[in-house]
Amino acid sequence: MQEIQKRPRMITNGWIQAAGLVLLVGFFIMGVLTYYTYNDEPPIPETVQDASGRVLFTRADVLAGQGIFLSNGLMEYGSIFGHGAYLGPDFTAEYLHRAALSSIDFYGKLDSDSARKRTIEDFKTNRYNTVSGTLLYTDAQADAFERCRAYYTDFFGEPTTKFGLRPSAITNPEQIRQLVAFFSWTAWAASTARPGHSYSYTNNWPPESLVDNHPTADAIVWSVLSLAALLGGTGLLLALFGRWNLMGWHGREQQHMFFRAPDEVTLTPAQNACAWFFFVMAALFLVQTMVGAASEHYRADLQNFFGIDLGRILPFNVVRTWHVQLSIFWVSTSYLAAGIFLTPIISGREPRGQKTLAYGLLGALTIVVVGSLFGEMAGIQNWMHGIWLGNQGFEYLDLGRFWQILLIIGLFFWVLILYRGLRNRLDSEHVTNMPWLFFFSALSIPAFYAVGLLAHPGQHFTTTEFWRFWVVHLWVEDFLELFTTILVAYLFVLLGVVQERTALRMIYLDVILYSAGGIVGTMHHVYFSGVPAMHMALGAFFSAAEVIPLTFLTLEAWSFLQLGAIQQSNPVTRFPHRWAVMFLAAVGFWNFLGAGVFGFLINLPIVSYYEIGTALTANHAHASMMGVYGMLSVGLALFCLRYIIPEKHWSDRPAQISFWSLNLGLAWMVFATLFPLGIIQLYHSINVSYYDARTLKYIGSRTNEILEWLRLPGDVVFILGGVLPILYICFLGLRYIGASVTAEQSTRGLFEIATETEVE
To answer: What's phi and psi for 656, nearest 5 deg?
Structure first.
């Protein structure tokens, strides 16, 4: 049997070694931090007793209360340790504040200095016995526990929807006691001194003057060092680019491109099947924006949704859960389709049966989406109990574990589909070249999403938060970003914008820069979740290194647009992808603004200390998630559908309207509402108190209400002008599926691209 001649590697060993070293060091540090997370997390006492020895609650009660908190969707209503949703209170901060006030009242009057001092001493003194596992509460703390239990009995038993929850959300007295035990334990961890230190298990978070919780030296020092690292690292990177032209993308302005008309491009059956994926994507996108608008309306008018008491049908935590989950689902659907569509272009062929496998994947995805959304609602509405088919309750990992596992299997099945299509090409390529990197990046998506299985509702909350953010950060902001970069790089190579070697440099630079900051930078999410201060130090410092390499790549899109404009005047080589590339250019802008500027703003420990769980977090999330992954998903859909929809039925007009509407709507959402709301709330948190800044009274204040209503025009433009035209284009793809030239096994490439065979 003749050995297949492999194409040599197309990049020098230095890039490969640097990328490998950065990954190795990054995950080694994460391994060390994992060890300290498990060993230094706040202890959950076996029993909590008052001074007389009466048991107030046990470890089992705390874990049961945590389960009640999650299964009732309360993390998609309020938050614990600052993490969760932003309508309801942070229950750690609220319990701590109320317990401190109760303690001051127990010892004397509010203006009594001795009462305040005794309260601080009670909350700061660590009375946990590591040998017996017993935690002693003072009489004042025990009295505060009973008072808080009465308060939360009324709060969760409220028979109306005035808090945004379903009526009489939790009425079982034992469940209330267990839930309050969980809140009480988090407040204890947030206030009592960590052994051997002068600050609490949560690095003195939340800010609460009643118990003398103030920013630590770590929060201030590492914020300063983060700024220094950002400025120094950015200057160094720009100097290297300017001095040595590392990427080799200068001087492309004179390049001439010759495009094959979309109708002349041969499509495979699996590529045509992608039309169904994109239609499902657009439908999920529409639903996601609708429930997002409903969740936003709760902040503007808590009980009256244009004359409807929406909380009785869809409480806030249901629509917020769906909004978050659907954002993952519709973006993932576009990525799956783009991978399937690009595979035969990369390999030059398609094995038989790919179409059947693609439809099978779409069917499985539909089952997961419908089943998980129903399970989440059933769990929150108390129609269904258990974490398997119902609601796990973790933000971004709300879906039941059965659906979570099924989704992981589906993602690995997608990788198998890609491998079948790429197999012959992979056999002929060096393992460091682009086809292999495309495959490896696709494989990382299910692999790192599967890490979320380590976050179990029945485990220690600090540990579950640690693993949850491996998904929220490492999966989304590192490996999904890597797949994004490779997809865009491959599109630019296929379109003749950048040479393959240049794109490879960009990809390896992406691996180096994202991994240098992004892996350990995951820890900026858990500053105050009960992990040691070293997590804050490393998380803050490495977060500053999260430079956005995709921005550098999308800079090339501007020269590409100029070249495309020239090609528009040539009917033979007319440029067919103007608006797809415009969406890719928008990715660069929102990546820099949303993930870069807004993200770095809230990642500074001293800012995060007062800001976590406020509107600035939502501002960053919307600008980065929609601005980067959303815009890219739409751009990928337009690129692929341009070949599926026949030329005579294609019009750039809907794509143009959608582009401007989505970007203007998102900009309006950010600058008219979320950013000013966040700044005002941050100021209130510092000036008054974090507790007060998270109350419904503050959120429903007149100023906030006006700013929330100001978002309405932007949302209307976003949905009507942005989402509906995309749905229409995807419908055309479905209507004319198979109308273009189709081949059973092979495909003609989009362009004739010179093959580079030698490494520099």
So the answer is: -65, -45
Residue-wise pLDDT for 346-366, tens only, equals 998 899 999 999 999 999 999
CA–chain centroid gap for 358, Å, is 26
**AA letter at 518:** G
Helix axes 217-244, 533-543, angle to 10 degrees: 30
Identity (one letter) of the amino acid at 416?
Answer: L
What is the C-alpha to C-alpha distance for residues 159 and 15, in angstroms, rounded to an integer? Answer: 62
**Gyration radius from the chain CA atoms:** 27
Lowest mean pLDDT among 24-33, 196-205, 473-482, 697-706: 473-482
Residue 666, number of CB atoms within 10 A of its CB:
23
Distances in Å between the Cα of 658 and the Cα atoms of 583, 663, 720 are 10, 8, 9
Compute the C-alpha angle 253/647/553, nearest 5°.
30
3-state secondary structure of 673: helix
Q: Cβ distance 122 to 104 under 8 Å?
A: no
361: nearest Cα among 291, 420, 289, 288: 420
pLDDT at 729 over 80: yes
Dihedral sign for Cα 410, 414, 416, 420, please.
positive
Omega before residue 45 within 30° of 0, cis: no
pLDDT tens for 9-56 read 888 899 999 999 999 999 999 999 999 999 999 999 999 999 999 999
Q: Name residues whose C-beta falls within 8 Å of residue 111's C-beta, 6 or more positions apart in sequence.
A: none
What number of residues does the chain have?
760
User: Three-state secondary structure along 300-322?
Assistant: HCCCCECCECHHHCCCHHHHHHH
How far apart CA 609 and CA 536 sit, in angstroms, is 11
Residues forming a β-bridge with 267: 742
Kindly list the distances between the CA atom of residue 635 and the CA atoms of 541, 564, 644, 656, in Å, as whole numbers in the listed order. Answer: 33, 16, 15, 11
Exposure string of 518-541, with b = 16+ CB inside 10 Å and e = fewer, is bbbbbbbbbbbbbbbbebbbbbbb
Select from 463, 470, 472 the least CA-distant residue to 530.
Answer: 463
Tokens of 358: 């693609």
Q: Which of 562, 648, 644 is nearest to 257 (CA)?
A: 562
Q: Cα 344 vs. chain centroid, distance in angstroms?
A: 30
Give the predicted TM-score (pTM) of the model. 0.93
**Residue 193, strand partner residues:** 200
Region of 7 on the Ramachandran plot (φ > 0 left; ψ -120 to 50 alpha; else beta): beta
φ/ψ of 9, rounded to 5, equals -65, 150
> Is 249:556 a contact under the CB 8 Å cutoff?
yes
